[in-house]
Amino acid sequence: MKKLVSLLLSAVMVASMVPFAVTANAAESDVKPVSVEPVAEETPTEQPTTAPETTQPVTEAPVKAPAAPANFKVKETASDYIIIRWDKVADATSYIVYRADENSSGKMGSYSVIKNIDDTEVTAYKNSANIKAGKVYKYKIVAVKTVGDTTKTSPEKVITTMTKPQNVSSLKVTKRSTSAIVIKWSKSSAASNYVVQRSTEDAKGKFSAYKTITTTKSTTTSIKNTGLKAGYIYKYKVKVKRTKSSVSNESTGKTVTAVVTPATPKKLINKKSTTTKIKIAWSKVAKATKYEVYRKAAKTKYTKLTTTASRSYVDSKIVTGKNYKYKVRAYRTVKGKKYYGGFKALKTSSAVNGVKGITVKTYLSRGLFSWNAISGASGYEIAVKRANGSWLVKANTSYRNYLTGKLKTNKTYTYRIRSYKTVNGSKVYGKGKTFNVTASNTAYGKTVSGTWVEVCTETQQMFMYVNNKLYVKTPVITGYYYDSGRRTTPGFHRVLSKKAPATLHGSYGGSSWNVTVSHWLGFTGDGQGIHSATWQSNFGGELYKLSSRGSHGCVNTPTGAISKMYSKAYVGMPVVVY
User: Fold this and answer.
1) What mean pLDDT, rounded, does the chain reach?
2) What is the mean pLDDT of residues 117-141?
3) What's the predicted TM-score (pTM) here?
4) What three-state secondary structure class fits 9?
5) Domain end: 294, 320, 349, which one?
6) One domain for residues 374 and 331
7) Same domain, 197 and 157
8) DSSP H helical segments within 72-200, as ranges?
9) I want to staple 79 with a disulfide (CB 3.0 to 4.6 A). Which of 133, 390, 412, 550 is the partner?
10) Would residue 434 count as lying in a domain?
11) Distance separating alpha carbons of residues 314 and 303, to the nearest angstrom
């Protein structure tokens, strides 16, 4: 009887023990201590002494192998550790984890036990011992069931994984423009490929999540990223990717910040010029922190005038009517470093003085204006004020006179004349001078009607009216301006003679002439008249102020114009010269 009780107690104690396997690689453990509930001993019951003593045979059920751990997979990898996980096996009493390593030749070694896990509530394991970056590892796991002296193991589950490779040692921007960035990185011996990702700045300065823009070969260690926005910031991340034994992994990535070169201002203009100031203005440059303004005058070098966040600048250190060159560039400051855009240049000038000495005359409903020359002026603009107050430009001329068209009799018009200087194709205007004109329909106290001719010696123009309508308008050359003896006589004249062709001969100041002209309309008793002049190559302007081109008082006229006029002209027809 005592012997039977002792055997039963020993069996209970053996069944309550937890098996423990020891291996050379079992250095790590993140499992919880095994908690074993005490097993209560069974107290035997004495049978009456009168009953015969009997012994029942003990029959043990066979031990079945546990199921293989399901969902065995990699939970997380880094360059120096791997975490694996699996589902709990209900009837397991422990787990055994094995690992095989890739060697320096790229081949896989044999499996060895790296961990015995006796707490079956633990279903994950972080392996960091003897782990190297960018290497392939194979893990195998089995569930163990031990009952008494009997131990059964499950079928094994196997997974292959890889640690993250190390990042490239260097990554930098090597070139930049207004639309492209070139980045370059160091070569990694572990790389099968390089994955390049980018984060993009928006208009508000916020950055997008990194997105892959390209995957390069292991031999390619730089890219040129085009189609970028000038002045914007782009962040790049380069990851080393290794592929081996049907598994791959990427490094965490090395990053670099790149600033695209700011744009060059699209426009730079002379906003306003006076004789003492020049105001320049330029277009906005995206993402610009500030702008630098430089200036140079003739025979000098560029000097910086200012750094400003504004898009205009007033230069007050100038000389009246002098030419200047300006250039402006934008820059963006990022982490204390300035990134400069290109220069936009402008050649311009301070204003010349305003027009002075304006003289106004009227002849036959026309206004004739003249004024003093302005030093440095390229020309003069003549404008008339509209009813709505705006100005209508009538002419731009380099001469110092202007003849209006026919004006309404006794109506007052407001005109403006202003000087300008042309620099690099643009006009810089001086201060305008305004005045009023009221035209009459008389000249030298007389009126005309029907058919007549007008000759304006100041503007070197001739007009013929037929039935009160303009019939011919032509440039001419009148008498030489600087010799009073050769000037065309102003006044109210009439055609005295009409002939086609005609021979003209005479002498003056030691020179003589004898020429034949196709048409002749004489209008003074001393031989002045309107005639063709085939020896003149062109007409108008200020040719009459040249001794070799000005006539001896006659009105030299293009052949086509005089032939047309001749057909309508008649003896006695008014010829008004002013």
Assistant:
1) 91
2) 97
3) 0.71
4) helix
5) 349
6) no
7) no
8) none
9) 133
10) yes
11) 15
Give me the half-sphere count of Cα atoms (radius 13 Å) on the Cβ side of residue 469: 2
Distance between CA atoms of residues 19 and 96, nearest Å? 12
Q: What is the average per-residue pLDDT within 388-404?
A: 97
pLDDT tens readout for residues 490-518: 999 999 999 999 999 999 988 899 999 99
Residue 293 CB-density burial (10 A; 0-12 exposed, 13-18 middle, 19+ buried): buried
At 290-320, the pLDDT tens digits run 999 999 999 999 999 999 999 999 999 999 9
The answer to whether the Cα torsion of 374, 377, 383, 389 is positive or negative is negative
Residue 433 DSSP one-character state: E
Closest Cα partner for 401 from 355, 439, 353, 437?
355
CB burial string 474-489: b at 16+ within 10 A, e below: bbbbbbbbeeeebbbe
DSSP 261: P
Q: What is the CATH number of the domain that holds 284?
A: 2.60.40.10
Q: State which residues form the domain around 274.
A: 268-349
Same domain, 110 and 132: yes
CATH code at position 549: 2.40.440.10
- With tokens 């044999």, the residue in question is 110
Cα 128 to Cα 77, 101, 247, 465, distances in angstroms: 10, 13, 19, 110
Asked whether residue 300 is assigned to any structural domain, the reply reads yes
Query: Do 285 and 225 fall into the same domain?
Result: no
R_g of the chain computed on alpha carbons = 53
For residue 24, pLDDT over 90 is answered with no
Confidence of residue 61 (pLDDT cuts 50, 70, 90): confident
Question: For residues 418 and 412, is the Cβ–Cβ distance under 8 A?
Answer: no
Which tokens sit at 221? 């260690």
Last residue of a domain, one of 301, 326, 349: 349
